[in-house]
Amino acid sequence: MSGGTIALLDLRGTGDSGGEHGDATWEGWRADVVWAWYWLSQRVAVPSILWGMRLGSLLAAELVSQCLVEPDVLLLWQPVISGRGYFSQLLRLGTAQQLIGRADGGKATKTPHEMIDAGASIEVGGYELNPELVKGAEAADLSTIGVPASRMIWHETSINEPPVLSRAASKIVSRWTDEGAKIESTVVRGPSFWATQEIAEAHELIAATSASITAVFAPSAARAR
Fold first, then answer.
1. What tens digit of pLDDT does each residue of 30-69 get?
2. How many domains is the chain partitioned into structurally?
3. CA torsion angle for 166, 167, 170, 176 (degrees, to 10)?
4. How do beta strands 127-129 and 151-158 pair?
5. What's the alpha-carbon Rg for the chain, to the nearest Å?
6. Is residue 214 located within the same domain as residue 118?
7. Which domain holds residue 116?
């Protein structure tokens, strides 16, 4: 199999999209994905894949579970399971930065959690976080959303030997499978490429993903011929 059309979406406030990072909200991101999906579906009529990585996987799974986007395949790369857990880590970083500032003679201020709860934007690692982005993401959790109707491919990388899914991920995959989902989960050896300062390529992940997509769509392609 070869060929295809790809729409690479920079959500508002990220990459080359419009707006600053502080303009990003969870509802705005949801709307971005739905609009982009509609735009692409009007231009191509082929089997479709919605592909999300990390926090984007959580966003994609939420939209598919609510039938706002209906791809043939939902592809998840290293999905964030809990928006609350994800942003708790970022807010702890913000707290650490505040503590360093106080040690340098800065004044004590509200904690990042308190500022978000009060509806104020905060800065973490040089990026402004909109409270509506944090609150919206914190309400999303793969362990509680409805089972997405699309066929799913869940792929991760790990430096462990042998590479295996985390306990939390295994529980979700098992629950979705028990509830009738068609899901393939694979873990391959590879770096945490999303967290490195330098470019890191996960060759085994790319190969495994290509093989999985080919296996899903090859029968329909053969029938079309």
1. 999 999 999 999 998 888 999 999 999 999 999 999 999 9
2. 2
3. -130
4. unpaired
5. 19
6. no
7. 86-136
